[in-house]
Amino acid sequence: MLLNRNKMKTAEELKEVVKETYSAIALQSKEENETSCCGAGECGTVDHAVFADNYDSLKGYAPDANLGLGCGLPTEFAQIKEGDTVVDLGSGAGNDCFVARAIAGDSGKVIGLDMTPIMVEKAQQNAEKLGFNNVEFRLGDIENMPIAGKIAD
Predict the structure, then answer these.
(1) Which of 117, 129, 147, 149 is the most exposed place for a label (fewest CB within 10 A)?
(2) pTM passes above 0.70
(3) CB-count exposure of residue 142 (10 Å: 0-12, 13-18, 19+)
């Protein structure tokens, strides 16, 4: 579904565009995502610019969770400490969650939140493969997070 600039979309319609786009991206390889000007499908009139970042030297990096969709290395600026509870909004396949987990350690906890069911599924599969029991992924919207208040650092 491409956004037609001549027709305004409601907030719900825009959210559906994002869900559809990221669902398509989740089914592509990292290489396809990194080489596409839009992330998924043809470029059309919408630019879903994909920014690749080099995670290779970061502790906790899980290549299977890196879809090539990053827009910076947020864990470098988040001031995460050992034992912290971290929430990652728009967690995708879990890459930043796994890096955050390496910093928060076994005594910490990481919660990834994403609004795209297939991304949450991919992230859960990645966490299971890695054997992480202090990283969890939840389906939800940032506007109404399924996370109890005051539980994150």
Answers:
(1) 149
(2) no
(3) exposed
CB distance 61 to 103 below 8 Å: no
Residue spans per domain, the chain: 11-139
Query: For the residues of 64-118, what is the DSSP string, one character each?
Result: GG--S--SS-GGGTS---TT-EEEEET-TTSHHHHHHHHHH-TT-EEEEEES-HH
63 within 8 A of 93, measured Cβ to Cβ: no
Share the mean pLDDT of the chain: 78
Say if residue 50 is exposed, middle or buried (CB neighbours under 10 Å; 0-12, 13-18, 19+): buried
Q: Given strand 135-139, what is the order of strands in its sheet?
A: 85-89, 109-114, 135-139
141 CB contacts (<8 Å, ≥6 apart)?
A: 15, 115
- Torsion, Cα of 30, 36, 38, 43 (10° steps): -150
CATH class of 11-139: alpha beta
